[in-house]
Specification:
Strand 1 and strand 2 form a beta hairpin. The mean pLDDT is 91. This protein is of the alpha+beta class. The longest helix has 19 residues. It is 32% helix and 22% strand. Helix 2 packs parallel to helix 3. It has a 5-stranded mixed sheet. The chain is elongated, with a radius of gyration of 19 Å. The chain has a single domain, classed as Ribosomal Protein S5, domain 2. The chain contains 4 helices and 5 strands.
């Protein structure tokens, strides 16, 4: 009787985006929200961000990755996906920790947009000053 392929599941976050990455042995196919990564992330920089943990750990073409991502915009979603993939690779192979940690891929980037304050034009911007 054949055993089911082992799937590792990790969650990554960035700004208001959350990504769930399911990683299993395969041919290197990355699917984001049931679409190929090239169709979902149209910017080349976003694709580089998503593939960064795989390139650093020499795992390109070794894992099939299925990602469900929601919230935020394209940049935040790419960052959340990168965080989730990095955590999944670490769960599979703990020896990659030094490389991933050095590049800062295991740290959740907690920067968010500052909220608009009452009596201001924006978060910090003030209304135009008039002397007279």
């Amino acid at each position: 009787m054949a055993t089911a392929p082992q799937v590792t599941h990790e969650i990554g976050k960035r700004k208001t985006s959350k990504a769930r990455a399911y990683v299993k042995r395969g041919t290197g196919k990355i699917v984001v929200n049931k679409r190929p990564m090239e169709d979902y992330f149209t910017r080349p920089t976003s694709r580089l961000v998503v593939e960064q943990p795989l390139v650093l750990t020499d795992n390109v073409g070794k894992w099939d990755i299925n990602v469900n991502v929601s919230g935020g915009g394209p940049s935040g979603q790419a960052g959340a996906t990168r965080h989730a993939i990095a955590r999944a690779i670490l769960a599979i192979d703990p020896t990659t920790r030094a490389v991933l940690k050095k590049e800062g891929l295991l740290t959740r980037d907690s920067r968010k947009v500052e909220r608009k304050k009452p009596g201001r034009a924006g978060a910090r911007r003030r209304f135009q000053f008039s002397k007279r």
